[in-house]
Amino acid sequence: MTATTPARRRRRRPTPPPAPPRPVPAPAQERPAAGGQPRLIELDLLRFVAAFAVMAFHYMAASKSIWGDFPTEIFAEVNRVTTLGILGVELFFLISGFVILMSAWGRSIGQFAASRIARLYPAYWFTVIALYVLYTYTDVQGFKFNLTFGDYLLNLTMFQEAFGVLHAGGVFWSLWVELKFYFLIAIVVLAGITLRRAMAFMWAWLVLVVVAEYLENDLLTEIVMPRQAPYFVAGMAFYLIYRFGPSVTRWGFVLVGYAFSVYAALERVQGRVDLVGIKRFPAPPTGVVIAITVIFLLMAAVALGWLRWIRWAPLTTVGALTYPLYLLHQNVSAVLIPGLRETFNPWLLTALTMGASILLAYLVFKLVDRPGQRLLRRILGGRRPARGE
After folding, report:
1. Taking the alpha carbons of 280, 284, 285, 291 in that order, is the dihedral positive or negative?
2. pTM of whole model > 0.85?
3. How far is it, in rounded angstroms, from Cα 244 to Cα 23?
4. Which residue in 257, 222, 220, 208 sits closest to 236, CA to CA?
5. What's the longest Cα–Cα distance across the chain?
6. Could you give the CA distance from residue 78 to residue 83 in angstroms, rounded to a whole number?
7. Which end of the chain is more exposed for a tag (fewer CB within 10 A), N or C?
């Protein structure tokens, strides 16, 4: 019997391990939270644009009492532009909707409250005290309101309008609007902000705006702010586009906010026209629509990242000083313009007053606002501000 040799067994190649699953992209290409992003310097620039627009409006279009004549007649060459500076506040509201949602995301209610208190109050307290000293111990009359010492004390809380007390500063009305926005968005912060909850909040707010307009109920109108809500909602939508990317729903919020904003802006500017006449306040409806459109286009450019090329570092400081500039500029003009208007050319005097206001705002930022924010954050336990805040 012939022995047979066993057939060689083929060596099996080792089975390669299964390929790891491909990473699933984050939903809607979500960007990291605000703290992980470079500072949005483009927002700092837009803040200054808004503050400068308001300053130009007050100096060159709205302050007859300090010039002794209608500023739109003194500065007739630019009055169709300076009258639209009134809408700088609306740009502030759009920016606020974007920034407040960004800064509130991922924070507890305590952290959110601490960040807002630290951001708003140091420069504001300084301004209220400065106005008390100015109007109590000098003979300056421009933008002087008949306030008692107790009224100034109540102004320190920023809640004076809720108690029927006049604002110590002419621009303080917008801070009350901002505070109410913070209280509304605090509802979402308490629940924990998510994309779905943010959008549900925005839908609910817009519905309440329509209801408030229909019912004409004073309390509901005071709470939901039909004339300012569209800017805040659109600003929030722009942040969602910035963070999660564009979608039909997010752009829908922007378009609805834009439509409501145009209506509100036309009504607000028309109120000025009705007060003094179109000749002395030449802000035609077409100009208002163009201004609101430009404002929305600028915020769309921020949301889509088209302005990321703006990286000039000093703009961070420029953005930070816009808050004290906004608070103080009107009263600086009350000090300088009445006493110098007979001596200086009005264009030169306006430029000097703008320069003085910006310099004072910078000093307040460096010596009061920034140290005060740091101190309040230490006291309240708030963390560092979000990027772009």
Report:
1. negative
2. yes
3. 18
4. 257
5. 134
6. 9
7. N
